[in-house]
Amino acid sequence: MNVRRHHISAVALAAVTALGLGTLTACSSDSTAAGNSDKFDVVASFYPMAFLAEQIGGEHVSVTSLTQPGQEPHDLEISAKQTAQLQESDAALYLKGLQPTVDEAIGQSEVGTKIDAATLTSLESHAAEAGGHEDEHADEHADEHTDEHSAEEEHGHEHEDGQDPHVWLDPVKYAEVAEGVGKAFEKADPDHAADYKKNTEALVGKLNALDEKFEAGLAGKKNSVFITTHAAFGHLAERYGLTEEAISGLDPESEPSGARVKELQKTAKADGVTTVFYETLVSDETAKTLAADTGLKTDVLDPLEGITDKSRGDDYFQVMEANLEALQTALGAK
Q: Which helix (H) or strand (E) holds 244?
């Protein structure tokens, strides 16, 4: 339904002609590429954004994800063909601060409706989770913190001012984002506004129920500290009174220092940590090494940046419930 579909810029056309061998990413809800359907065409940056678009848009939208299933979203490089898709779409839904190349491409595109999920809820800084407890270890590891944060900023894996962009792992914040996306869809495609509003209300209701399930499921926990490969779960931890200790920072590919590993070993012993969590889209080698050195178990805590055959569920809600079960086991809540 894109009224600007025939006005793609000459620059984009030239790029597609020269580099047209780029591969289309998988379409999240329809095999038709963005800009080539009679529906409201939405380009989403990665799975959590595509899921929102599908749930809220329903039958009225055609959703294309820029990030393929199984691809680590932080490392995404936008192809010329994807740039052309953006130009032809009705809306772009993304989370600024998570994927620098997406931020740049959407910023330079002529998409009529640009929806930045980071503006639809509040982001917090969870730097402490990436570098240990700030209070008793602050001076001892000041240089380490500086090095880690500099690396994160260099690779663009955090939001402006060091804020944590992983808001979708907090059902309450994700619901706030959903409400904002719903309103944006209503404004951009008023012919289907009533359905967007209805679908948004249904999704928010399911997210509120998930929040209640987490509250009840973690209420009887025996301890509250958990170790993860990278600092994706700060918002979730803050919501439910937990403490995340990440091996790496917000960048899942960064290597921890020897001092950080030793600190985590001390933390695990002091706080009764039972499990080191790893994820499906990045290497589990560091997590398993730390666990072996400290006599701990390993398990998956999925940051839900993409759904693959290895995921413990077929969609956001199933994987989040699997995450809850993993946390309950690790924290002695079941």
A: strand 243-246
